[in-house]
Amino acid sequence: MTTKFPAGFLWGGALAANQAEGAWREGGKGPATVDMIPHGKDRLAVKLGQQKRFSWREDEFYPSHEAIDFYHRYKEDIALMAEMGFTVFRTSIAWSRIYPQGDELTPNEAGIAFYRDLFSECKKHHIEPLVTLCHFDMPMHLVKEYGSWRSRKTIDFFTRYARTCFEAFDGLVKYWLTFNEINILLHSPFSGAGLVFEQHENPQQIKYQAAHHELIASALATKIAHEINPQNQVGCMLAGGNFYPYSCKPEDVWAALEKDRENLFFIDVQARGAYPAWTRRMFREQGITIETLPGDDDILKETVDFVSFSYYASRCASAEMNNDNTSAANVVKSLKNPWIKASEWGWGIDPLGLRITMNMMYDRYQKPLFLVENGLGAKDEPDASGNIDDDYRISYLREHIRALAEAIDDGVPVIGYTSWGCIDLVSASTGEMSKRYGFIYVDRDDRGKGTLARSRKKSFWWYKKVIASNGADLN
């Protein structure tokens, strides 16, 4: 096919406050969940909610505390994005910059001023901000005092925060996402939703009750956004990628169906406005009882305007999946697919899987899609001249953008594309800087050493050409 994207298609890149900003105690910011997640051997146990970290330790390194110092360097970084031709930039607001503890009645004006300046800088360069309200960070006070999303009170704290953002940045931001990769709550509960478990608890009960509270909060925030400005466009956000049956054995096909349902549960509610029918049996068999209030069903009917998602890899499922035969490379477990190659971190590289995922999601939801994360984590080594020839990244992105064009040609409406980690940042999964995604190199290593100087990789110039041609020139 001839690669063809619609007029007005938004091209850009994405990052998250917790992986880029740093300045973790500046400007009145309070400590957040991500600020308690160390680099090293204990990182996964903390992310999974198996090891309590309600304070930081002097003997550990916390990558989020400084990250890539986007907080002080955003003007320089946005100028580089503008040089590439970005028409959209996805970032997030750190909740604890606006409400340092999370339960205050009045916001931190210094936090509001920072983001107003950030979004104004985007607009100055004709870049549309796409803003996530909650991207894997929440105020630690809400975790310690209320148990995070276990408590229904957190709904009120979130909607107050959301309203503050919608009002403060009205006219600067029109594209909003409520929760980043909301389904990761089920797989990485502390990093996803601030959840920590006690030994006697049923983790599934806690996770799905917290999920209910997040879904109510998302629907209420969507309603508030539309009331404040009917032009606001609010999306949900899925960690995407279909599960393939490992074989045509019927039990494997059923296992893949169940895994897809689990993955899509949140988006089913946010895009369709009700719990899917299959959850009744699942809750019953897992001993889960969701506590609700009268009116919750009506609240959930406030659905999103579009469905956004990340796509890095497809996944494989079988009836015999277990901890011994699934990949440890990602919190969403998968069997290794023998038909595709994998990245250095074991993530299957599957461009056709993107087209499959997009067709499935549009068939299911009938809402416009927005691909807001896609990229290749790799070890980039500057040569003697400081150049980085990341042809492997160009190849990955080229094939995925072609698959995106195929999905559009299939009839799937797509708003735009923001590649993940357009500037090198801290990896959410491993806490490494060496797992790089960007078009822009940042001089910093896994232990926080380096000058933080920015430099353009070969992919920078390639992506600039892609944007200038509206996706027609991928060579």
Describe this protein's structure.
One of its GO terms (molecular function) is beta-glucosidase activity. There is one protein chain. The model has no long low-confidence stretch (mean pLDDT 95). Helix 7 runs parallel beside helix 9. This protein is α/β, with parallel strands linked by helices and 475 residues long. The protein is globular, with a radius of gyration of 21 Å. Strand 9, helix 14 and strand 10 form a beta-alpha-beta unit. It has a single domain (10-468), classed as Alpha-Beta Barrel (TIM Barrel). The protein has an 8-stranded parallel barrel with strand order 1-2-3-4-5-7-9-10, surrounded by 4 helices. The chain contains 15 helices and 12 strands.
Labels describing this entry:
TIM Barrel; globular; 12 strands; 8-stranded parallel barrel; 475 residues; 37% helix; two-stranded parallel ribbon; alpha/beta
Contiguous helical run count = 15
The ordered string of helix (H) and strand (E) elements is EHHHEHHEHHEHHEEHHHEEHEHEEEH
What is the name of the CATH architecture? Alpha-Beta Barrel
Weakly predicted, low-confidence segments: none
Main CATH class: Alpha Beta
| Adjacency order of strands in the biggest sheet | 1-2-3-4-5-7-9-10
What is the strand tally?
A: 12
What integer value in Å does the Rg equal? 21 Å
Major beta sheet summary: 8 strands, parallel, barrel
Number of spatially distinct domains: 1
- What is the residue-averaged pLDDT? 95
- General form: globular
Strand content: 5-15%
Fraction in helix: 25-40%
Whole-Å distance between the termini?
Answer: 15 Å
CATH homologous superfamily caption: Glycosidases
User: CATH topology, which one?
Assistant: TIM Barrel
Structural class, by secondary structure, is alpha/beta
